Amino acid sequence: MKPRHLIALLAFVAPPALAQDLTPTDTARVDAIVGDVLAKTGVPSASIAIVRDGKIVLAKAYGKQSETLATPDAARPYQIASISKQFTATAILLLADEGKLSLDDNVAKWVPGITDGDRITIRQLLSHTSGLQDYWPQDYSFAAMAKPVTPQGILDHWAKKPLDFAPGTQWQYSNTGYVVAGLIVEKAAGKPLLAYLQDKVFKPLGMKAIDQDKAIGPAFPQGYGRYALGPVRPEKPAASGWLYAAGELSMSAADLAKWDIARIDRTVLTRADWTTQETPIKLTDGTDTHYGLGVFSGLQNGRPYVEHSGEAVGFISENIVFPQDKAAFVVLTNSWSAGAASQIASKLALTFLPALANAPATGDDAQAAAKARQVFDQLRAGTVDRAMLTDDANYYFTPTAIADYRASLAPLGEPQSFAQAGKTSLRGGYVIRGFAIKYPDRTLRLSTFFDPATGKIEQFLVTPSGQ
Length: 467
Description:
Number of strands: 16
Order of helices and strands: HEEEHHHHHEEEHEHHEEEEHHHHEEEEE
Mean pLDDT: 91
Shape: globular
Helix content: 25-40%
Number of helices: 13
Low-confidence stretches: 4-19, 357-364
Structural class: alpha+beta
Strand order of the largest sheet: 2-1-11-10-9-8
Radius of gyration: 21 Å
């Protein structure tokens, strides 16, 4: 359920002005963008929706949605994972309007047994400033996810650990905080989270949303993955319960676009609630987190945006709204082996909006880069020093995974460059770094998580780039 940031991908382009309807030329451009990124990344399918002038002007699916579905259908629901967080936050805002809770209530008032629950507020849960350790920072399934879990089971394992930091002093993405928030919604509302959202949000907007644990089987899009540049393989879904309030929803791109239109038009919620959700929280030292309550928000070239992505087992999604332009771009994909969703969304935004500039990210760690390069070279040779990996990473690197890494990477030879791309960050107790691996005809991406206590690698994922 890790968010994949879209905005860093945007660059200068000179697109046409906005208009309500897509022309045949516009549609052809969209088809070309989606087709090109899917081909370059190996992602089987994408389902998209485009909002212009506050209306859905295109909803279309592309590619292979599963092993059993013969043709793509834009009405089929994809798992939207962490994009669900803004709906959990919305439930909290609505309950606050009903006088059933306050954003500044302490967690201990609602959910007992949480570490320092008397110091953590609901607002801090929703803004990822609580200090609760993330239970799923990895971009792969760890061993425990093969067995069903309950929200309380997640909290018993992760929310009773010492906090990663004092509440309000740092920003660190935490799915755990949203599990706590979901339980608070259910206690305050007196009904399940999804049932409350159905009554208050989905039915009024004409949206169809279902529990992602039930969006599995031959009638639904299937998740895929691959090891490095190896074969694209169907993924085994996580057992039930793992996403809950942190990412439990499945819906079509068009249904998610209806929510984006509600954001643009300021319906369902009060204007004050929309503003509260979209206003970035500041830390105790005044630092801007660029994250509100369930959404990232900021300015691109003076243009406000609200954005979130999502990752479930075998699925990555991207949703970005430009409220002042009455525009939104939804991209749902059924593979977590590449960032195709964010790449497609950024290209669509640049096609239909004026140029959006972003300062390049910075950051470097020579020692981590050297270790990452060492493991990369080992995998190219078909081996890995397991002493350099954590137990979770060793679970991920099965003989099949190592064979796919070797078969797909060895023929590429030596990369032209291997360098950190973007800033070093923290999540789930790990130090996160991304790397760009460049060859004459392609660029690969590498996502690494390092355990700061041991120096071992928790995550090492090579994926193709659509650039």
